[in-house]
Write a structure and sequence with these properties.
Layout: E1 3-7, E2 10-12, E3 18-25, E4 33-39, E5 46-52, E6 55-58, E7 66-71, E8 76-81, E9 90-97, E10 113-114, E11 118-122
Parallel strand pairs: 2-11
Antiparallel strand pairs: 1-3, 3-8, 4-5, 4-9, 5-6, 7-8, 9-10, 9-11
């Protein structure tokens, strides 16, 4: 059974850091594209970052602050989030994409399996 488990969220002050983890079971993360998305209340789900075949992509809003990485031995994809801002507050999800054109990594419809989400709150 394919499962993704997102964890690592929490409450952090502006300027702080968090590292999210997406641990997979039922498949190998290096065989698929893995994306991080977020959804704030009243807003649509948006792509944050994506990793596949050694390539990494970031939304403009997080470029230079967030870093995506993968540990194949742990079958886990990470999202290191630094210099957090209040506007980063959202539920963060990880998802698996069997295949997609890299230019469309932000499109949720290409992802077939989703984790349950982890809350990130940036507030003083």
């Amino acid at each position: 059974e394919v499962q993704l488990q997102a964890s690592g969220g929490g409450l952090v002050q502006p300027g702080g850091s968090l590292r999210l983890s997406c641990t997979a079971s039922g498949f190998a993360v290096d065989d698929y594209g893995i994306g991080w998305f977020r959804q704030a209340p009243g807003k649509e789900r948006e792509g944050v970052s994506f990793i596949n075949v050694g390539r990494k992509f970031y939304a403009d809003a997080v470029k230079g602050r967030f870093t995506i990485s993968r540990d194949n031995a742990k079958n886990t994809v990470y999202l290191q989030m630094n210099s957090l801002k209040p506007e980063d507050t959202a539920v963060y999800y990880c998802a698996r994409a069997p295949r997609l054109p890299f230019s469309l990594w932000r499109a949720p419809s290409y992802y077939t399996s989703w984790g349950q989400g982890t809350q990130v709150t940036v507030s003083s």
